[in-house]
Amino acid sequence: MEAVPAAEALDGHKDRFDLGVFVGDLSLDEEVTSDDESLEGLQKELDDCKNDQEVANILANGIKLREYTKGVENNIRQIELDSIQDYIKESENLVSLHDQIRDCDNILSQMETVLTGFQTEIGSISSEIKVLQEKSMDMGLKLKNRKAAESKLSKFVEDIIVPPRMIDIIVDGEVNDEYMKTLETLSKKIKFIDADPMVKSSKALKDVQPEVERLRQKAVSKIFEFVIQKFYALRKPKTNIQILQQSVLLKYKYTIIFLKEHAKEIYAEVRAAYIDTMNKVLSAHFRAYIQALEKLQMDIATSTDLLGVETRSTGFLFSIGKESLKTRSSVFALGERINILKEIDQPALIPHIAEAKSQKYPYEVLFRSLQKLLIDTATSEYLFTDDFFGEESIFHDIFAGPIQVVDEYFNAVLLNCYDAIGIMLMIRIIHQHQLIMFRRRIPCLDSYLDKVNISLWPRFKMVFDLHLNSLRNANIKTLWEDDVHPHYVTRRYAEFTASLVHLNVEHGDGQLDLNLERLRMAIEELLVKLSKMFSKPKLQTIFLINNYDLTISILKEAGTEGGKAQLRFEEVLKSNIAIYVEEMLQEHFSDLIRFVKTRPADETATSSERVSIAEVEPLVKDFASRYKAAIEQMHKDVITSFSNFLCGMEILRAALAQLLLYYTRLTECVKRINGGSALNKDLVSISSILFEIKKYSRTF
Known about the structure:
The chain contains 28 helices and no strands. The chain is mostly helical.
């Protein structure tokens, strides 16, 4: 029979028992004391029984709970009786088990006693270990403190004690490497005594300090004598100062440090002694070098060597003597003088070698050599004083004398210098030297080089203005020569301008460009005035063309673009060539040119303007009869009139091309005349004229 769920069983037996009977069965032994007692717990028990499988089976089988309860109780009593019997049967075993348990309990009690003893002993050992650990830590701390005290005491003793060996070296030893090391040790002891306040209160200091002070005084005295002796060695003639500084003085640099730290008054004396020594030595060296350079100086220009000054008035022919013309030409031309800028890093001149070779130099060469020697000496001295004394300011005290010597010489020369190109070269030299010092990162001569540069520019402007005014105020009558070839003033100007333009290419000085423009206007005005001294306009034009062409050629030969001046001269040259071509053609073919210019070039002429054969026939026959001779004569005129053959050839070609153009217009006019074909036998063919043009172009 299948089991029925508890809920269904309860629902199926509602007709067999009511709620009161069921409650009564569940609480057989309980007495209901009151009808008002709460039944809240009953619902929970009912809900629990719903899901109980055993209860569900009982209800499904229709068994009453009271009967079922009695059956369960009987079963329990039976099981209890069976268990008692089993216990009785096993009583002996249980007694034996009880005895065994009691014996085990006694053994465990003994073991507990032994273990308790062990635990007590272990606790005692742990306490002893803890005590030992505390003692060990205490001993470690004491050891650490003793080591620290020993280290400090050892260092104190080492720093304050004065070994006998130190005394022997300081008092009796020579100043050498060992002496330098001993000085450093002594310096540390002095600093230790002065710096640590605890040392000053120590009893050991009372014994040591007097000895240390005596050693300091002895060291200062010996160092002073040694250093002063080395300084005096710098004054000996022919002494290589830089070698002595680098190999000797720097080796004993610590002596100066010692004096600076422990004897400031003595250090001041040593510093002053070095400044005085080097000031005098270097001043004497530069003074002697300048005197030697003066013997090598070549005088380039005087106050009368100006662009617009007439050659004879300067006494040029009498002043040059055996002096080469090449030297005199350097007044206005740069020439090989530009090479000085390529030799900017070369060593300074050795005067006695140059003098032995009887060599002379323009002042800018001597200027570069002197300035090169100055910047090299200054660089060496600046680096040495900074390293040896640790002071940059000492340099200016030393070089006050040498710079004054160089300044006096430079100012004296500059005051009488009228060489504008030389002054400009010196300006560029100074600029290069400034770059050299900048690359070396040596600022000690910045103010001096700026001062020299500032001195050169006003002098250059003054000399330049002398040249400019010499052109503006030139005496035309004394300058004029009855010669159409280039004037010497033009050559001077062109060479002078080309030189300055070349020196300004990399610098682009706007003020110099402005001054050169003023100079161009002055020379152009002067050339126009000189040209007007010629009686014939043709000669005037030839003169201007020759001078303009020379100027352009020199500007181009200088390797420069010539700037605005060249462009202006090319413009006026082109204009004057056009004028000359017309003048030359007018001289030989005036009737032809007049006829062509008065007749229209096209066929729009009116009846009144029409040309007759009678008008044209003389022109055609005249041209045919003498055009070859005229061209030959123009060729001769060009050759004799123009110095530059290339320019003359271009002028001749331009003239012949213009002549061909005029004659072409004449032939066209003849063709338009009624019956003009009768003149064809007298007309010269264009090919014949071209043949003559090519012939003279080839032979020119």
